[in-house]
Write the structure tokens for this entry.
Amino acid sequence: MPRSSRAARTACATGPDRPARPRRLPVRSVLSVLSALATTALVAGAAAPAASASPIAPTVEGRPGFHPDRDFAGSTVAAHEGRGAAPLASLAVTQTPGLDVASYQGNVNWSSAAANGARFAYVKATEGTGYTNPYFAQQYNGSYNSGLIRGAYHFALPNSSSGATQANYFVDHGGGWSADGRTLPPALDIEYNPYGATCYGLSQSAMVSWIRSFSDTVHSRTGRYPTIYTTTNWWTQCTGNYGGFGATNPLWIARYASTVGTLPNGWGYQTFWQYADSGTFPGDQDYFNGATDRLSALALG
């Protein structure tokens, strides 16, 4: 209806001496927009699969622009370090292929990944202390049920809370371990900050202390020191190339090139190598540095 016609009808309805009634707005409840959804309690290493969790909105950790569904192992690597040639066809040690996934991949076809040669998987469980991967149950238990050796990892936000606090949150939400021969050590993903300063505003010594706190807490809770995921460049810049974790923590190095290159100080070899962020499998492409029997030995502890 033309605006002039609507105005005329309003004038007729109210009359020159009758004030127009205030328009009533419908009252809508804003309660129950987000309700707490019961998520499946997952104990790492349990043989029986947990029920699949439904995707839920992440909790914002007091900051605008929080995007944990876009943060995963390697999500910052290519932008800072680029991509190079494919891995060498022949490496000195037998390499066992695998992958790592996060909510970005959604529900994964694990039987297809296994048929294509995947033998292990790391799955993002948590970030900071306010986010759990809504696809964790499908990814963590689905990989197990398809015959893969799997483990969980935590995306670190060292400027958000202490290492111990995040380690406890991680272990409480999927980052556990049991000696079933099918569960990898829990893993810490420590890489370029997707929200700001590369080293999260921490000094090199403070970063080492944060990682130590996380590592020691995971060890005290699970009996295993966590695998550390990082790049040599980030580690050098943000820890001063600290060499004190090599004796206890397996290294998961990220480098999208034909070789792993120079490793961070303290490690004589990598346990895992994330060599590409796309390829045969869903998510990122990884190698375990050894044959499948050695992978099983790592899982057993």
Observations:
- Helices lie at 3-14, 77-81, 110-115, 136-145, 163-172, 204-222, 232-239, 292-300.
- Confidence is low (pLDDT under 50) at residues 1-60.
- The longest strand covers residues 120-127.
